[in-house]
Specification:
The structure is a single chain. This protein folds into two domains: 107 residues, Rossmann fold (3-Layer(aba) Sandwich), CATH 3.40.50; 132 residues, Tumour Suppressor Smad4. Helices cover 17% and strands 40% of the residues. It is built from five helices and 18 strands. Strands 1, 2, 3, 4, 5 and 18 form a six-stranded mixed beta sheet that branches.
């Protein structure tokens, strides 16, 4: 039986042109009847699509009409059914962030990473606990982040964090421009780890917490843990799986 598609695209001119083209070439069954979502744009739009459709339990196949496109496949208008029939899947689980502020607690999910960032010229001071045990009493830094394997080649890599295989039961805890302890480069944690950041001198050194593209400002503490009750399937062309991309990324100049 032929698969039913639902096409979505970012607001860029190229992506919207591609959306019109694909809807002319293939029938759009709509989100309620589709078997797979075809997302056209860049990596940022893929993250938006993962969040938007996570409760529908539909696999998502990305086509790159952005810049890097690490989470996307090459855009081609022809042969979509054949590509999907041979596609390889990757199941990803998000992080759940609970950020505390004066107004209470704020929950959000992140498929890439949760990052804490200084809001002013003042460096941040973070106390880091892993499974209720203090691991760093005071990290003086621009910030810190926790990345999933799927997000390890994004902001985490730019902050000199490790690249994780997609099937690794690990999370990457990575400092951002650490001043003290200067030589701490981060840690690899079990995917079961529960991490808590407590912001020291929060009034003087305000910090924001970001789950993918959702930001909470002036946080006092942030708890992060993987949520295995939620899973989303991403589809990749045969021979170009997310595993292969992550491996290849480690051998580039």
């Amino acid at each position: 039986m032929a698969q039913k598609f639902h096409f979505v695209a970012s607001h860029t001119t190229d992506a919207q042109s591609a959306l019109s083209l694909m809807r002319q070439k293939y029938q759009d069954a709509g989100p309620d009847r589709a078997d797979v979502v075809i997302a056209m744009g860049g990596d940022g739009f893929m993250l938006q699509t993962l969040h938007e459709f996570r409760e529908r339990n539909l696999p998502i196949y990305g086509m790159n009409l952005g810049s890097i496109g690490f989470l996307m496949n090459e855009f081609q208008e022809d042969g979509l059914e054949e590509r999907l029939a041979k596609a390889e899947s990757a199941v990803v689980h998000p992080l759940r962030m609970t950020a505390e502020t004066r107004d209470g607690k704020h929950d959000s999910l992140a498929f890439n990473e949760v990052s804490l960032l200084r809001q002013t010229r003042q460096t941040a001071k973070l106390r880091i606990l892993v499974d209720n045990k203090v691991r760093i009493e005071e990290l003086i830094c621009d910030g810190a982040l926790i990345s999933t394997p799927a997000g390890s080649t994004a902001y985490n890599l730019s902050a000199h964090g490790p690249i994780l295989p997609i099937d690794a039961d690990l999370l990457a805890l990575t400092p951002i421009s650490a001043f003290r302890p200067r030589r701490w480069r981060g840690a690899l944690l079990s995917h079961r780890a529960k991490v808590r950041f407590e912001i020291r001198e929060a009034e003087k050194r305000p910090v924001s917490a970001v789950a993918d593209d959702w930001e909470v400002r002036d946080v006092s503490a942030v708890d992060v843990a993987e949520d295995r009750s939620i899973s989303t399937t991403m589809l990749f062309d045969a021979g170009h799986s997310l595993d292969e991309r992550i491996l290849a990324e480690q051998f580039v100049d």
